[in-house]
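Hi D.,

Good news: the full-assembly prediction came through. Inputs first.
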Amino acid sequence: MVMDRDDIFSKIQEVLDDALGVDEDEVTPDASLVADLGAESIDFLDIIFRIEKAFDVKISQGELFPDNLADNADWVADGKLTDVGLEMLKGRMAHVDFESFENSDRSISKLADSITVNSLVTFVELKLAA
Amino acid sequence: MRWLWIDKIIDHVPNKRLVAIKNVSLAEEHLHDYIVDGQVIMPASLLIEGMAQTAGILVGTTSRFKEKVILAKITKATFDSDVTAGDTVRYDATIDRLDEAGAATSGTVDKRVAGGDAWERIGRVELMFSHIDNNMAGRAFPKHNFVFSDNFKMILKTAGLADLACTDDDF
Amino acid sequence: MKFDLVDQVLEQEDGRIVTIKQVTLAEEYLADHFPGFPILPGVLMLEAMVQAASKLLAAKGQRLVLGEVKAVKYGAMVRPGDTLRVEVTAGATKDDGSTPCKGKGTVLRRDSEETDTAVAGRFSMRPARIE
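Then the structure:
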């Protein structure tokens, strides 16, 4: 499937409109799924199903959104992401921009805020190019 | 008011599809509080519950009712026309996705008017269910599966599907 | 038992209404939902928002019905003794006669200052359609 970034963005807007009940004009590239669009864990599942259907791709658990981080003591200490953890995430989640998270207190509860609409668009771009 | 919004299961494809019907009768008190232009109307929220019970039982059968399954999200529901006393409603639910966290289902709602033969499509409902023991860590729930009660057991038994339930008394 | 899910209107203005619904063991359906673990059914939280919207939008005595639901999510549980505080805002009515609404329900508990969200999402109200 050959799609340019704009086509992908447009489809992601529809996915988020359906999954989160937000209007397409609220779905801006920098909008954070959790902080701006009110997404919760039940919504992440819904978003994954819809992206799979919309772009005809298969997404495995933990591929789009990091999971089970807290289980690993190398990655999370005192509720915060360690340097090792951050490097691991940057490698595994090339679609997410961790810059502001890196410069914050790195509290694990804020990690999901880094996932923006752009993260989803980049994820699909990388998936389709693979 | 009881909280049973389906009357009978009429079709079942294991782990995939469940079809149930509900008769709408003036004997139901709540209808008398929902009158528009002189006609009683079955509230659409209760049509959604009918679908939730149909889909919920279907999802429950996949774990033989070991998992407590509750409604987490109404992803989308549309109703193009309304239901009144004398109608029969048919819920046709399918599992779209199922894993340890929960399930996603979609389904159609049809109605057949009193004395009529044909089913008319009146709506679509997409739902998401959560397996609560997995997803609500730290909250205290009774150990037994309170979600699937004797009422549902009876409906399954009438449909010849009693073997889908757990054989022990936890159900 | 009556099917009335608005116990009181706390605030009402153009396009916005705030209502409450008390949850009490006197409500019969709680015996079935669930036996030994009574909680307000999710669709009744939706119905509370729908009835609040109907009060806001319909002329006195008239009733609009629920036509569409979009991404209504459930969170905290609402138990006997709790109060569900419902807030609904309505947009402009469209040409097809439907009115888009946004609703949220929070749980108010006697013994706590905290308010958790029990339900939130969008829905659309319309005139009834019976042939």
